[in-house]
Amino acid sequence: MEAVPRMPMIWLDLKEAGEFAFNAAVKKSAVNVPRDFEGCSTLRKYFGQLHYLQSRIPMGAEQEAAVPIAWTEIFSGKTVTHEDIKYEQACILYNLGALHSMLGAMDKRVSEECAAGAFTYLRDHFPHSYSVDMSHQILNLNINLMLGQAQECLLEKSMLDNRKSFLVARISAQVVDYYKEACRALENSETALLLGKIQKDWKKLVQMKIYYFAAVAHLHMGKQAEEQQKFGERVIYFQSALDKLNEAIKLAKGQPETVQEALRFTMDVIGGKYNSAKKDNDFIYHEAVPALDTLQSVKGAPLVKALPVNPTDPAVTGPDIFAKLVPMAAHEASSLYSEEKAKLLRDVMAKIEAKNEVLDQFMDSLQLDPDTVDNLDMYSHIPPVLMEKCAALSVRPDTVKNLVQSMQVLSGVFTDVEASLKEIRDLLEEDEAQERKLQELLGKVPAPQGSSPLPSPGLAEVSKECAKYLEVHEKASFTNTELHKAMNLHIGNLRLLSGPLEQVRAALPSPALTEDDKQVLQNLKRILGKVQEMRDQRMSLEQQLREMIQKDDITTSLVTTDRSEMKKLFEEQLKKYDQIKVYLEQNLAAQENVLKALTDANVKYAAVRKALAEVEHKWNTTVQTLVASYEAYEDLMKKSQEGKDFYTDLEGKATKLLEKARAACQAAEATRQQILEKELKKQPPPRPTAPKPALPRKAPELDARALDAADLAVLPEL
């Protein structure tokens, strides 16, 4: 419609409080509240604190601390008294709903849903026998009235906002449904008896509204038909709207002038729509007008709901002023709730641990490390340990040269020592040979094979020392040989490490993978990433669950909950874990598919893995060899220096021994000459014989060692 006429709304009177053994200030501020939203807030706070109080102090019916509580019954005006703190709560809750209905009937058209919520909570959580105005029938009536009026407010807003015709029709149809429920309650004889004289007034207004809003619903269905160019349907909907509006007008007799004005305005709109639609169809469109019962009925759209009342919401009721009073029963219930939480955690952890065990065993069997499965990056650069060695050698450019020179010096000293020892040995052998000849000349008896004549003391000492030096030299010779082998093994690597880095990098092995091989690697990495993502999410969800359970303390709620409602409270509180349990179940269920994909990827990875393993082994071996060569350098230099020191010392000793050997050999030769001369003097003169050829002489001395026994006889003649 072009404008939105308003219908009057039903609002409820507040109950009046009687005697209650509370402080007068409480009665003044919490019972006789102002008729505004501040009054609603005061009632909610008072209701909440009563809820906290009754859970700690036995003020219920027939309990030790129960006191008389009196309130006036609305319809009869009688004072009703009960010794039950819940009666006080029920009356406060009734007044909260009544005050919201009063505010909702004002121009702002708000608060009806709050009224319905208060009456719903009163109906569902309190006895219905306290008084007539809080009976089950009356509360159901109030709830449907408030919901109907709340939906009516929504309808007004929807029409002002020019919402789609079909939506407006459905909203209006739901208003009709709510008022029909209220009308059925009003027509009930028992309810009529309880309400008294106001029953007829309410019933007449509600019946009029049923027809009025049914007319509004069909008006907008006709507008939708017009939008769809269903001109026959448009006519029948507008006609039905007109018929229902006429019924509403009949029922509106005696209603205020505001109602009559609204009906007249609506008649102008619907009547105009109907006449125009009928005329257009008769003269222009000529569409058949269907019967109303052949068209689909308009289904209501319930877009309002009774707003819930939470007596323990601190944002509404304020802080619990009795918080420090915790009954033993609440502690016991808290322990039971803790066990429920522990059971929930055990069940979840059993599933997690079972899946984790399967996952760990599977991953162990594959022996796949996500961090190293794709190690291609390591081949693109020189490893830090090798870079360190290259850097160290770069500041010592003469490393290889120094090592070669050191080994050459060692070889020179070694050769000198070996030459000296050989000369000593040759002198000793020569001396031994001359001594043997002398003995043979003197004794005319050949020396036994393999025996040696006794050397002089000087030569014996030289021979002993020479033997010792030869033994030492022989052992050192083996070490020297091994040292040279080690140098030859490492010298090439040291030259490589001392050279350009490009050559070092080129010397390191690297894999040659095809594009297919790389694709296999990428797929495996992706799935391994999924595995880790699944693990991380599982751990995170588990941690969240543990933290939620740790922080979950419902002692305050337990204090304010009746023992008979504990099980229900536990169930409601445990629902907070449903969402995280769903996430965990999804995570655990995904494991099977992830592992299947990983198995397939691993099969394809087998050949690539073997090739990479071989290259990696070669690469590691090469790096280790180069590092070992660097680390061997200092050892080689040290040992070569030790070798030089050793052979220099041995060379000095060998030189001295050589000089000593020469002197001893000369002394031994001189002794042999003396012996020969003495022996010659002892010989008798020879018999005359034919002269023999002259003996060869050695100028300037006679070499007696070259003479045999026969020649000695003629020496005097010379």
Automatic annotation (TrEMBL):
Example GO biological process: endocytic recycling
Region Disordered, annotated ranges: 676-699
Q: Which InterPro entries match?
A: ALIX_V_dom (IPR025304), BRO1_dom (IPR004328), BRO1_sf (IPR038499)
Its Gene Ontology cellular component terms are: endosome
Q: Which Gene3D superfamilies match?
A: alix/aip1 in complex with the ypdl late domain (1.20.120.560), alix/aip1 like domains (1.20.140.50)
Tell me yes or no: is Cytoplasm among this UniProt entry's keywords.
yes
Lineage, uppermost ranks: Eukaryota, Metazoa, Chordata, Craniata, Vertebrata
The record's section on PANTHER family has: PCD6 INTERACTING PROTEIN-RELATED, TYROSINE-PROTEIN PHOSPHATASE NON-RECEPTOR TYPE 23
Cite the BRO1 domain residue spans from the record.
27-359
Q: Where in the cell is it found?
A: Cytoplasm; Endosome
Q: What is this protein called?
A: PTN23 phosphatase
**What UniProt keywords are attached to this protein's entry?**
Coiled coil, Cytoplasm, Endosome
* CDD domains, alphabetized: V_HD-PTP_like
Coiled-coil segments: 414-444, 524-551
